[in-house]
Amino acid sequence: MKNLIKKYIVDYVREYEKRYDISTTWREPLVGFADANHKDISRIREYTFEEHLMPSDILDDPTIIIAYFVPFTKDIAHSNIDGELASEKWTLTYQETNEMFIKLNDYLIKKIEEMGCCAAVCNVASDFKTDILKSKWSHRHMAKIAGLGTFGINNMLITKEGCCGRYFTIVTNLQVSPDKPLEEENCLYKRNKSCLVCVKRCFSGALNANNYDRFKCYETCMKSFDKYEKLYGNREVEKGKPRGGSQVCGKCVVNLPCSFKQP
Ligand code: B12
Ligand code: SF4
Ligand code: SF4
């Protein structure tokens, strides 16, 4: 059943990128299965904050949380190396990936229901409280427990296909064996105190070896939002152009030893 679900996700992304109205292509998604009752999920409020939702807030009797990672292609990453604002392509990829997530999740939920089980997504996962800049649902926490990766100094979850891409999670009551969190660190600095290329790439100073300042980062992401909102905000949707502004930057995700592989 796990292989079938992986196949649904991989095939869906392959088919989706053939759509005439989008420009983004992705590398092959990775899929992991987290134990919804894992101790580090039961204790998630201690790790994050007191309003974080529990899997049982999303679905009755949750057993497995499916986590998937959709890695970006190298040309998307390369477009975002230079400059202090997110590239047009990076912004559009963010937006087209969000649009795909909605459709892919609906498809997966339908497929899981056809198997006689139930599934649901947290529909506030993309929202965050602007006073603390935290969401009530952490995709990365779930993906970590699902064994997809480990956290880097850049604050991204680094998989065997790198960290340049996006995550989503679906809570289910599937009866399959859960995957285990990885034991070895994927980040070079965490492994042997070397690297820190991501810190050098963060021109705003939001990132250093010991800390990530989400407020400074948010301010920087808002600069790209403002630029593309001004340029494209009031225009009809046009293929290959951002649909307005998005809070993105991502300079600390590209041109790194961990962008596309486990370093
Ligand atoms: C709010 C938000 C932002 C805010 C605040 C940033 C932040 N890092 O929180 C802003 C707008 C600034 C932002 C910026 C960016 N974001 Co953002 N963002 C989110 C969002 C919506 C919520 C994150 C959140 O608040 N989670 C709640 C907090 C409490 O948890 P967390 O940070 O996810 O996980 C922490 C805990 O689990 C904790 N932890 C502590 N103890 C323990 C113990 C254990 C055992 C475990 C497992 C974990 C754990 O460690 C984790 C890291 O700090 C998520 C989507 C989502 N819902 O998950 C995307 C998300 C985190 N963003 C993402 C990205 C890509 C970006 C940007 C690169 C922007 C861009 N696309 O160009 C930058 C990168 C900034 C950075 N270096 O972190 C991706 C990350 C992908 C990846 N490879 O990891 C996500 C997951 C979106 C997605 N759907 O893929 N983001
Ligand atoms: S660039 Fe280096 S230090 Fe930064 S997250 Fe990747 S491996 Fe870790
Ligand atoms: S997204 Fe930009 S501002 Fe935020 S940590 Fe990464 S490089 Fe720095």
UniProtKB/TrEMBL annotation:
PANTHER family: IRON-SULFUR CLUSTER-BINDING PROTEIN, IRON-SULFUR CLUSTER-BINDING PROTEIN-RELATED. This is Epoxyqueuosine reductase. It comes from Terrisporobacter mayombei.
